[in-house]
């Protein structure tokens, strides 16, 4: 019952700010509510406060004893939704596929089923000794991805 109420309140809060979207909603056995958000333009402290108030002010403390935590998806968190990939177009990602392959490259295209990465790789020359740098590109379906993280550069 509580989960449905919190989910409905969260849905209403996110409808008020359509640039925000839900990454995770977790309610523990002892009613600790944990909401993780992301946004097309990022998530501000004010966004978290607004969502928190929307939930907290509409849940009856007499009926439910709960704690509430609303936070943004951290920079070290893996991407989980196509919408997160879209907001990171042009950035470098580190990908682990389900078959164990690891790829680091620039996110150049995104749609609802897959995304495209481009990167440079050193390969042996076709003729003679030494290596040459070649440009590679791969389109990867989300279903084949174990983990995708944005690479932070300073």
UniProtKB/TrEMBL annotation:
Residues 79-154 form the Ribosome maturation factor RimP C-terminal domain. Signal peptide: none annotated. Its main location: cytoplasm. One of its GO terms (cellular component) is cytosol. GO terms for biological process: ribosomal small subunit assembly; translation. HAMAP family: RimP. Required for maturation of 30S ribosomal subunits. This is Ribosome maturation factor RimP. It comes from Aequorivita lipolytica.
């Amino acid at each position: 019952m509580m989960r449905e109420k919190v989910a409905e309140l969260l849905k209403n809060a996110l409808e008020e700010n359509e640039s925000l979207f839900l990454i995770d909603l977790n309610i523990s056995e002892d009613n600790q509510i944990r909401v993780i958000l992301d946004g097309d333009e990022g998530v501000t402290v004010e966004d978290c406060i607004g969502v928190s108030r929307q939930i907290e002010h509409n849940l009856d403390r007499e009926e439910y004893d709960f704690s509430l935590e609303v936070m943004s998806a951290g920079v070290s968190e893996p991407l989980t939704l196509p919408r997160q990939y879209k907001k990171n177009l042009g950035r470098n990602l580190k990908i682990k596929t389900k078959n164990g392959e690891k790829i680091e490259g620039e996110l150049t295209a995104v749609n609802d089923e897959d995304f495209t990465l481009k990167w440079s790789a050193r390969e042996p020359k076709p003729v003679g000794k030494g290596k040459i740098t070649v440009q590679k590109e791969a389109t990867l379906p989300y279903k084949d991805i174990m983990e995708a993280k944005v690479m932070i550069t300073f």
